[in-house]
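step=encode ok
step=design start
structure_in=
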């Protein structure tokens, strides 16, 4: 097998292939020789340079790792930068770029994936984990989107939910926000400007000196009437997998606004029974979740990076709740027969260690979780490794694909993928078992 060549970039971001060195990859703390889990760079994926990170290659004659701290192209010498890939929806990364920090900044919050140059072009170490196509990038940010946004804003001119979604749809190209304007599938309903966690990788709130937040957080929470207005219209008119979801990347924790959301859900359900009402949550407040279930919430998607309390709390840094509250919320949602999914934030070399996999399998089996949605954690890899070390979770990883196979074997009912399941899919679809790789 011809192993992929090392990629590196110039200071200006021009990506190049090294003439002799092979690509290395990272799994947690370990820099490794490449494995055979690479695939052609998926459509809509892109290569990115990593400022302040030196690429590490492999000398094919000796098999040794080699730090590339100087490159010469066209008679000019420069300090090269490491290169990674960003994957489109439906893919899950399996390995991280082979690089070391050289005094650079904390990287922006993206899910950096190992990449190299294969026989026919760029490759990435990733799995195709969801083959449904309703989140394909070509369906979003189309030429008609500005007109659809204007029409919806005219329909609800004073609504602060739409004002926020307008920003998210245009500036951040958030697919869930755009769906509100396309009137299809899962649509976002941002609800909260505050949070009871201080996630290390929060994409809407970072401390001074931290990584630049990739989203601006909702500044003023909307009223129950405003949320109900947009939610009811979407569920009544949306094509495809009609669903609304409270709890988005541009906001805090929606359970902190449970009363307003419960009022909105009740108002929506008084007008339409169509579609699904979901919450994306850290599951920190079981009492608040009960209020929402009482009002008509039917699906709960719980974000977590780990089922081990120590690593979970090291990353989420909860305020006023603990891991035990998360489990209590899962148990409550299961008892009330809501559809329960885990929004699993995966990190190669940590999430796939034997201890982490064992804890996750136990959680899934104990509460008969319906679905695991794999999410490649968007964070500077070295930043998360610091968190894992402090939590004593820096054991050797055994591979993301092996982790997912172990889950599927232990819980044969479990749906594994990247996207939410609509009401009809939950009830009638056979076990969703994507072909990994």
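sequence_out=
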């Amino acid at each position: 097998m011809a192993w992929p060549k090392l990629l590196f970039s110039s200071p200006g971001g021009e990506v190049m292939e090294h003439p002799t060195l092979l690509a290395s990859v990272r799994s947690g703390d370990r820099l490794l020789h490449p494995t055979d889990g690479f695939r052609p760079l998926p459509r809509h994926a892109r290569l990115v340079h990593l400022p302040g990170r030196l690429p590490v290659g492999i000398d094919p004659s000796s098999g040794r790792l080699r730090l590339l701290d100087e490159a010469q192209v066209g008679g000019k010498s420069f300090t090269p930068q490491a290169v990674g890939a960003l994957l489109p929806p439906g893919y899950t990364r399996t390995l991280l770029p082979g690089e070391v920090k050289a005094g650079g900044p904390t990287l922006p919050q993206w899910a950096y994936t190992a990449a190299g140059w294969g026989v026919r072009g760029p490759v990435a170490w990733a799995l195709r984990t969801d083959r449904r196509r309703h989140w394909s990038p070509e369906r979003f940010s189309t030429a008609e989107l500005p007109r659809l946004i204007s029409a919806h804003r005219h329909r609800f001119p004073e609504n602060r939910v739409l004002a926020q979604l307008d920003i998210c749809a245009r500036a951040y190209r958030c697919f869930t926000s755009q769906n509100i304007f396309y009137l299809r599938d899962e649509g976002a309903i941002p609800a909260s400007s505050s949070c009871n966690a201080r996630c290390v990788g929060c994409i809407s709130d970072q401390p001074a000196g931290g990584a630049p937040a990739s989203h601006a957080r909702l500044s003023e929470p909307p009223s129950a009437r405003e949320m109900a207005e947009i939610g009811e219209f979407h569920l009544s008119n949306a094509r495809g997998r009609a669903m609304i979801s409270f709890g988005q990347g541009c906001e805090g924790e929606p359970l902190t606004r449970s009363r307003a959301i419960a009022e909105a859900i009740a108002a929506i359900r008084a007008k339409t029974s169509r579609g699904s009402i979901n919450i994306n949550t850290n599951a920190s407040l079981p009492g608040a979740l009960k209020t929402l279930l009482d009002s008509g919430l039917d699906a709960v998607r719980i974000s977590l990076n780990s089922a081990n309390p120590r690593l979970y709390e090291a990353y989420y840094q909860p305020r006023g709740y603990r891991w035990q509250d998360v489990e209590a919320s899962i148990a409550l949602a299961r008892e009330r027969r809501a559809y329960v999914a885990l929004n699993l934030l995966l990190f190669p070399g940590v999430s796939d260690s034997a201890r982490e996999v064992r804890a996750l399998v136990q959680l899934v089996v104990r509460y008969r979780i319906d679905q695991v949605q794999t999410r490649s954690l968007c964070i500077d890899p070295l930043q998360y490794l610091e968190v894992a070390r402090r939590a004593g979770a820096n054991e050797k990883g055994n591979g993301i694909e092996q982790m997912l196979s172990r889950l599927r074997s232990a819980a044969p009912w479990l749906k594994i993928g990247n996207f939410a399941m609509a009401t009809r899919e939950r009830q009638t679809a056979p076990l969703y078992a994507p072909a990994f790789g």
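step=design ok
step=annotate ok -> The radius of gyration is 22 Å.
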